[in-house]
Amino acid sequence: MNCETIEPALSGYLDRELTQQQQQKISIHLEECPACRALLEELASLKTSTRNLHYQEPSDREWKTMEQNIFERISRSLGWLIVVVWTTVTAGYAAFQFATSPFETLFQKILVFGIFLGFALVFLSVLSERIRASRTDPYKGVRR
Amino acid sequence: MKDRKEEISEKELLRNVLNGRKEAYAHIFRLYRHRAYGLAYQYTGNKEDAMDVVQDAFIRAYLNLKTFDFHKEFGPWLLTIVRNLSIDLIRRKRTRRTQDLPEILPDAESGKRADNELLRLEVREALIQLDQNDREIIFLKDYQGHSYAEIAEIIQIPIGTVMSRLHHARKRLAQLVREKRT
Q1: How many CB atoms lie within 10 A of CB B177?
Q2: Among all residues of chain B, which has the CA nearest to that of A14?
Q3: Torsion-angle region of B94 (φ positive above 0: left; ψ -120 to 50: alpha; else: beta)
Q4: What is the DSSP string of A67-94?
Q5: Residue B77 and residue B39: Cα distance in Å, rounded?
Q6: Which residue, A110, B58, B65, B98, has most beta carbons within 10 Å?
Q7: Inter-chain contact B120–A66, Cβ cutoff 8 Å?
Q8: Is B34 within 8 Å of A138 when comparing Cβ atoms?
Q9: DSSP H helical segments within B64-111, as ranges?
Q10: Across residues A116-136, what is the average pLDDT?
Q11: Looking at residue A24, what is its pLDDT?
């Protein structure tokens, strides 16, 4: 095997991600090829340096606050989900009962449905605007 | 990255979360918060944005836990969410603050201290110059220590592509470090 076929597999060799047979073939090549050996040493040295880099971590207090925020937001999301589902089911049931009620005339039903249709359209347009705005709001991340 | 015992207890925790036990999710949060934060930081380049991404990712993971395949590992699944949210955030902001990238840790081996710190300083600067894809794959392998299979799952590429992309990224990093020395 020559350097051209060995070189692309050097990272796999370094990370021990090759098969045993491939590892052996590369080991044999490395014994007789100073260029590939030098590249492997260089990659190994960079790997060690990268592993020892350090990111600025949040403090214990910040982690605690984040944990609390996560659970608060999960509860809120679940709460909203229940509100939306329950409201939709209740409104649907009420609309069905009203539409099939024998006590109101068709004219009365149209009047009432017109009001609800208007509110529903306003609600949907505000909702879609809010969703669109929250995606592009540059101040979304600002804590209050 | 994990032994079998840890994996089983993690799956038990996740099943407890699905059964409505929120305190189990607090354990999951503590297990994965550093890895999630490191990945988010690698994309956003600053602490505040990284923290926002981590928070959103854990909420999204919780709300979508029913869709998680319990035959797979939770870590790569969560980190895929972190990655997607980070990319969304930097697309929205269209800027990336690079001044807050990795800091240098003091070296325990005092004999090689000066050389190692110089190399790490060079690596840190070279990493900033790398493009996002190269930096991402080096970070996942060399900083976080994921296997090629896990990396393939997190960044959603075929496993065979991981080695070639990683090798290309490392060679590019080596080249940038060499350029700094000349």
Answers
A1: 19
A2: B167
A3: left
A4: HHHHHHHHHHHHHHHHHHHHHHHHHHHH
A5: 13
A6: B58
A7: no
A8: no
A9: 74-93
A10: 84
A11: 94
ipTM of predicted assembly, 2 dp: 0.75
Min Cα separation A138/chain B (Å): 7
B95: helix, coil or strand?
coil
Q: Is the pLDDT of residue B116 over 90?
A: no
Rounded Cα distance between A2 and A13, Å, is 15
Domains and CATH numbers, chain B: 1-97 (1.10.1740.10), 106-182 (1.10.10.10)
Tens of pLDDT, residues B78-89:
999 999 999 999
pLDDT of residue A135: 66
Six-digit token string for B153: 């799952």
* Interface check B97 vs A, CB under 8 A: no
pLDDT of residue A9: 93
Nearest-Cα distance to chain B for A132, in Å, is 12
For B41, the token pair is: 């930081």
> Minimal CA–CA distance to A53: which of B125, B104, B43, B34?
B104
The pLDDT tens digits for A39-86 are 999 999 999 988 888 778 899 999 999 999 999 999 888 888 899 899
Gap from B162 CA to chain A (nearest CA, Å): 9
